[in-house]
Amino acid sequence: MTDDKYLMLRHVFLFQELSAEELKKLVPLLKEGGYRKNEVLFRANDPGSTLFILRSGRVKVTLTDRHGREVILRVMQPGEIFGEMAILDGYPRSATVTALEKSQVFTLDRDSFLRFIQEHPHWSLKMLATLSRRLRKANERIGSAILSDAHGKVSRVLLDLIPDGEWEGKEGIRVRLALTRQQLAAMAGVTRETFIRVLKEFERAGSIRTEGKEIIIVRQTDLSREAL
Ligand code: CMP
């Protein structure tokens, strides 16, 4: 199991620059956990003292209002870390995290995480870059939510899916959707009906193609033009 952990960590982007020795020191500090589809890992405002590394599956980071309406802030992919905010600023969890599918995680307790940061300044810089990228994305989403029309909002969500897609040359970029249309609409901040209508318009214009649970982004530039 230890070898298994080591090999997995080797593939985690954030850990790629650590030496074999450094990584081997990290392995015994990690605990393993598993979650069923729809299981909540933790809720917004819970106290939090654990860092998570997603090993397999997908989890969503959400905020919910008192009417139960949900906005999806991000879908975490294998290899990504989350739960660092409550540890770093000492405030409760900033959002709820729920498994979208059966997911496995590694966890690191607060003290080990803080010690690791102090002992590996190089690694900390890489983590700061990751957090900056997330802030950049969050800014784009805020700008889009306030300033864009429905076409812009849907375009922003589709563009955000691209890093998880597969390049198919002239055909475009194929993205397997981990989210339902309803959830993608929630991410865009539009109703499901509007999301589907805009998707159809993009499809008619030849900017995208839909194939069941997959979307093929055919002309990325069309979407970039619409998005903020
Ligand atoms: P924490 O606040 O401890 O718990 C919720 C986690 O979700 C948070 O740490 C981050 O890891 C993650 N998170 C919160 N907001 C965002 C966001 N806008 N984009 C990406 N990840 C987020």
Cα shape: globular
Terminal Cα span: 46 Å
Residue share in helix: 40-55%
Could you spell the SSE succession in H and E letters? HHEEEEEEHEEHHHEEHHEEH
Structural class: alpha+beta
Notes on the protein architecture:
This protein has helices at 2-10, 20-26, 84-89, 110-119, 121-147, 150-161, 181-188, 192-204, 220-226, and strands at residues 31-35, 40-42, 50-56, 59-64, 70-76, 81-82, 96-99, 103-109, 166-167, 173-176, 208-211, 214-217. β4 (59-64) and β5 form a beta hairpin. With 228 residues, the chain is an alpha+beta fold. The model has no long low-confidence stretch (mean pLDDT 92). 26% of the residues are buried. α6 (150-161) crosses α7 (181-188). The termini are far apart. It has nine helices and twelve strands. Residues 48, 61, 73-74, 82-86, 93-95, 97, 134, 138 line the site of adenosine-3',5'-cyclic-monophosphate.
Brief synopsis:
By secondary structure, the chain is an alpha+beta fold. The chain has 9 helices and 12 strands.
Features:
alpha+beta, 12 strands, 4-stranded antiparallel sheet
List the topology elements.
Elements (H helix, E strand, L loop, with lengths): L1 H9 L9 H7 L4 E5 L4 E3 L7 E7 L2 E6 L5 E7 L4 E2 L1 H6 L6 E4 L3 E7 H10 L1 H27 L2 H12 L4 E2 L5 E4 L4 H8 L3 H13 L3 E4 L2 E4 L2 H7 L2
Antiparallel strand pairs: 1-8, 2-7, 3-6, 3-8, 4-5, 4-7, 9-10, 10-12, 11-12
Bound molecules: adenosine-3',5'-cyclic-monophosphate.
The site of adenosine-3',5'-cyclic-monophosphate has 15 residues, from strand 5, helix 3 and helix 5.
